[in-house]
Amino acid sequence: MAPTTVSLKLLVDSTNQRVLFAEAGKDFVDFLFNILSLSVGTVIGLLTKQEDMVGSLENLYKSVENLSDTYMQPQADKETLLKPIVSNSAANVPRLLPNIRSPTSTNLYRCGNTSRSDCRIYVSSDSKSICPSCRSEMSRTATVVNPPEKPASSCDDGGYVKGVITYMIMDDLVVRPMSTISCITLLNKFNIKDVGVLEEKVINMGTDEGLKLLKASLQSKTVLTDVFLGKKTDHRDVSDSKTIFRF
Questions:
Q1: d(CA 231, CA 160)
Q2: How many C-beta neighbours within 10 Å does residue 213 have?
Q3: How far is CA 39 from CA 43, 45, 148, 238, in A?
Q4: What are the distances in angstroms from CA 120 to CA 125, 126, 141?
Q5: Do 57 and 40 contact (CB within 8 A), yes or no?
Q6: Cβ distance 24 to 161 under 8 Å?
Q7: Residue 203 · residue 7 · CB < 8 Å
Q8: Strand, coil or helix: what is 181?
Q9: Exposure of 215 by Cβ count < 10 A (0-12 exposed, 13-18 middle, 19+ buried)?
Q10: Nearest to 218 by CA among 172, 167, 174
Q11: Running DSSP on this structure, what letter comes out for residue 125?
Q12: CB 228 within 8 A of CB 49
């Protein structure tokens, strides 16, 4: 089962109160990469309850939500716009966002005529479709068979990235493999002369932080600082805080 919390370490410049980078494993990077697979409707649906939601997409979302079915095409389903089905490829990604799967599943239908073998090759997502072979209504529910689950292995843990590597996530969500050279280069870039000003914070991320990060990623170039060091951030999820610097 995919985890519902993820731990990551932040390296903070305590003088300027900014996150230089986060050190994280596969789980957090999978969560970040999975954001790219979310539809616009899904993202807006998750963020509509945010008090300071910006832009007009929220209004567009609510227009679809409030529009009477009288004005919708008979074959159109508003749920496909408001709550699109999430791809199965995200099954092992940490659940750091509220449930975004549509409550209505997509059924498949076969021809109700069982006497003709050539009718069996057709399926439809609409129970009122007409079989091309015998012209009967395709009203018989088909049974969908999922492929067998792959056994867990060191080379395939699901998600998107490999789990044997530690990753560096920049404040603007640039992701790269962690290395000593990258750390030194970054310290020079930010003109860090005294390593004593660096503070490490260990963060346990849950759904609340996942929503904040999703929202900040659409509005800011300093996502980690805004989410974890911002004035509105709840610091109860900080399990450890100490001055430290290491490679």
A1: 33
A2: 22
A3: 6, 10, 27, 31
A4: 15, 16, 12
A5: yes
A6: no
A7: yes
A8: helix
A9: buried
A10: 172
A11: S
A12: no
Contacts by residues 241-244 (CB-CB < 8 Å, ≥ 24 positions apart): 241/199, 241/200, 241/201, 241/202, 242/199, 242/200, 243/14, 243/196, 243/198, 243/199, 243/200, 244/198, 244/199, 244/200
Can you tell me the mean pLDDT for 25-39? 89
Q: What is the pLDDT of residues 36-93, one digit of tens each?
A: 888 888 888 888 766 666 677 778 888 888 888 888 888 777 877 887 766 555 556 7
Among the listed residues 159, 153, 172, 233, the one whose alpha carbon sits nearest the alpha carbon of residue 201: 233
Instruction: State both tokens at 230.
Output: 């911002």
Q: Measuring CA to CA, which residue among 41, 71, 72 is closest to residue 58?
A: 41
Asked if 37 and 246 touch (Cβ cutoff 8 Å), the reply is no
Query: Model pTM?
Result: 0.70
192, 185 contact by CB (below 8 A): no
Place of tokens 């100490």: 242
Residues present in the chain in total: 247
Asked if 87 and 159 touch (Cβ cutoff 8 Å), the reply is no
d(CA 135, CA 15): 75
Give, in order, the Cα–Cα distances in Å from 137 to each of 107, 113, 114, 132, 231: 15, 8, 12, 10, 60
If DSSP codes are grouped into helix, strand and coil, which group holds residue 23?
Answer: strand
